[in-house]
Design a protein that fits this description.
Helix content: 40-55%
Radius of gyration: 11 Å
Distance between the termini: 18 Å
Number of helices: 3
Shape: flat
Strand content: 5-15%
Largest sheet: 2 strands, parallel
Number of domains: 1
Order of helices and strands: EHEHH
Structural class: mainly alpha
Length: 54
Amino acid sequence: MIAGANDSATPPADGRFLAAQIPGARYVELNAAHLSNIEDRDRFDREVRAFLDL
């Protein structure tokens, strides 16, 4: 689960809740708002690549 620390539409608390409900899930909070794949692109890419084990 990737969330933006400053996302008011889908707040970090929602991401933490969802991650807690999914067995084996991992929660990552980026320094971004709702478009974390654009606002913190490098970290987003690293986290997704690590998840995909690339």
